[in-house]
């Protein structure tokens, strides 16, 4: 934004200062009423309660009136949210719109020699845009005519329907057609070159933030990127900065829920190790790493990974990653609430792994949580956590040691 406006100035480090700078720039008369912001795939409003600066009834700190903001979500509650003006429910493609979309994406479908082949594909996929996009990827990659593509979908339909009907249903879930086309693409990939590596990469991508995934996060991502792009599984935006990729959140859900097999524990271990390598570029005891570390691009992915780690998946490495990332958020970005959440998660995992037994690392977690409360002025809560940490240190080390001084 500074470059667009021809302004100079160093970019602040702390998240709250960056946010204030962005808000001020969006109010600049030179771009006021000329920008559009997008909040994509928002979860339930209740889950974003901490974003008071953005979603407060009064409009919070965000300069809503200076531009236009588009909000997308699978949750209908946003249609009636008091921050936003007009909301409407967006359905799937219209019939002719779907036909045009398929023919534009698949060149050899433009001259449809079959009677209504393209129309049949569109109808089979319920005109759902993301399902149609996935279908075009396979049609192009394997030179499939519409009837051949439909026959391949039919091949495993009974088994897929059984799996679909036995699923755990949840609000805002993807339609069956999305499940069907992703499964078909997966089946095709399993028959191709480097099948195990490509499918392993997709499983790893299912456990990170769907947007702005650095190419360097995973060692083999650059190698397998062409095949993932050609199957319309990832998107590579044009950027002057470090190369990143995105994967749709619905694609991630299908992979996590139906295509993980028995590999979840190994996948989580790999993703944890990949993120830990990047977060280790930060050392809380070396201030020079505050500016040189690569952590800012990876912290959101740590938070998403932790959201998908359940009770059965907890291991020491996951807790250590949460603990270390919490220190980065606390020291570098001053994101005290987010840091506390990570420290609380690390504490819960270590309590589970240690059976509740006292340890110095648990005491440190209590101290860290106390620090995060202190920074936001929640002094009674801070005192409670500091007291827990001190009492545990005394139980672990005794009274006459420097650890409790």
Report on this model:
Helices cover 54% and strands 4% of the residues. The chain contains 19 helices and 4 strands. Strands 1-2 form a two-stranded parallel ribbon. Strands 3-4 form a two-stranded antiparallel ribbon. Strand 1, helix 3 and strand 2 (68-73) form a beta-alpha-beta unit. Helix 4 packs across helix 5 and helix 8 packs across helix 9 (176-190). The two termini are 49 Å apart.
Any key phrases for this structure?
405 residues, mainly alpha, two-stranded parallel ribbon, 19 helices, 54% helix
The side-by-side strand order for the widest beta sheet comes to 1-2
Distance between the termini: 49 Å
Helix/sheet category: mainly alpha
> β content, as a range?
under 5%
Name the assembly state.
single chain
Order of secondary-structure elements: HHEHEHHHHHHHEHEHHHHHHHH
On the 0 to 100 scale, the average pLDDT is: 87
Major β-sheet annotation: 2 strands, parallel
Number of β-strand runs: 4
Low-pLDDT stretches are none
Instruction: Compute the CA-based radius of gyration.
Output: 24 Å
Query: Which percent bin holds the helix content?
Result: 40-55%
The outline comes out as globular
- Compute the number of helices: 19
What is this structure, in a nutshell?
The chain has helices at 2-5, 15-26, 52-55, 95-105, 117-124, 129-141, 146-155, 157-165, 176-190, 195-205, 221-230, 249-258, 264-279, 289-292, 299-307, 316-333, 336-354, 360-375, 379-397; strands at residues 36-42, 68-73, 213-214, 244-245.
């Amino acid at each position: 934004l500074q470059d667009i406006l021809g302004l100079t100035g160093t970019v602040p480090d702390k998240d709250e200062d960056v946010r204030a700078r962005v808000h001020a720039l969006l109010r600049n008369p030179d771009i006021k009423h000329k920008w559009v912001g997008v909040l994509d795939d928002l979860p339930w409003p209740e889950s974003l309660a901490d974003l008071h600066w953005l979603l407060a009834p009064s409009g919070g700190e965000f300069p809503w009136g200076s531009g236009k903001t588009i909000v997308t979500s699978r949750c209908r509650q946003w249609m009636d949210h008091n921050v936003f003006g007009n909301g409407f429910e967006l359905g799937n493609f219209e019939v002719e719109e779907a036909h045009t979309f398929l023919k534009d994406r698949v060149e050899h479908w433009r001259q449809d020699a079959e009677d209504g082949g393209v129309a049949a594909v569109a109808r089979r996929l319920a005109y759902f845009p993301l399902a149609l996009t996935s279908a075009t990827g396979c049609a192009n990659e394997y030179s499939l005519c519409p009837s051949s593509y439909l026959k391949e979908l039919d091949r495993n339909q009974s088994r897929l329907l059984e799996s679909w009907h036995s699923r755990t249903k949840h609000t805002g879930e993807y339609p069956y057609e999305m499940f069907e086309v992703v499964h078909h693409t997966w089946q095709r990939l399993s028959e191709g070159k480097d099948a195990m590596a490509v499918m392993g990469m997709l499983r790893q991508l299912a456990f990170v933030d769907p947007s702005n995934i650095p190419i360097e996060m995973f060692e083999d991502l650059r190698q397998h990127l062409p095949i993932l792009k050609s199957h319309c599984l990832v998107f590579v935006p044009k950027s002057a900065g470090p190369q990143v990729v995105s994967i749709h959140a619905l694609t991630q859900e299908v992979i996590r829920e139906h295509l993980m097999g028995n590999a979840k524990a190994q996948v989580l271990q790999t993703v944890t190790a990949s993120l830990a390598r990047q977060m280790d570029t930060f050392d809380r005891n070396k201030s020079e790493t505050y500016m040189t570390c690569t952590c800012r691009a990876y912290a959101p992915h740590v938070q998403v990974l932790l959201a998908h780690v359940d009770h059965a998946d907890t291991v020491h490495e996951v807790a250590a990653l949460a603990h270390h990332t919490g220190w980065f958020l606390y020291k570098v970005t001053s994101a005290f609430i987010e840091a506390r959440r990570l420290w609380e998660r690390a504490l819960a995992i270590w309590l589970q792994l240690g059976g509740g037994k006292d340890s110095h690392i648990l005491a440190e977690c209590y101290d860290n949580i106390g620090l995060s409360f202190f920074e936001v002025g929640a002094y009674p809560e801070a005192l409670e956590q500091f007291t827990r940490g001190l009492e545990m240190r005394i139980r672990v080390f005794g009274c006459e040691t420097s650890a409790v001084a």
